[in-house]
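Hi R.,

Here's the chain you asked about this morning:
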Amino acid sequence: MPRLEPIRDTESKWYLPPSVYARTSLPRYVLGAGYVVSASAVRPLFQAALETPFFYLEDIFLTGLVAEKAGVEVIHTSYLMTMNDSDAGLCKLLGTVSAHPLTPDKQRTIWRRLRNDSATSGCPSPK
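And the predicted structure, written out as tokens:
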């Protein structure tokens, strides 16, 4: 996970003013499609969150600032993904834990297709 620079473009949805975050690079973090957290990490993350000033970009807050303060290792996985219709292949989705953004109708459509054995019979087994 590379360290990214804060977005300073005032027109951006993810604009981060220097008054909120003065550092020139963000902590390493993972996108907030979903998180799988070990039981042993919950208490240190919770305690560190109580001691960390509020930050409105939750993925940077939790998996970056808080995890860094708690000394919790963060690992990216492709099983939690951001997707759009162009990359929503059923084989890719078989081993996925979480995907977004999806409308409720799209979620139901994908769920019905994934439950249809013939639609996924040619897919390799998820690892």
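The two ends are 22 Å apart (CA to CA).

Let me know if you need anything else.
M.
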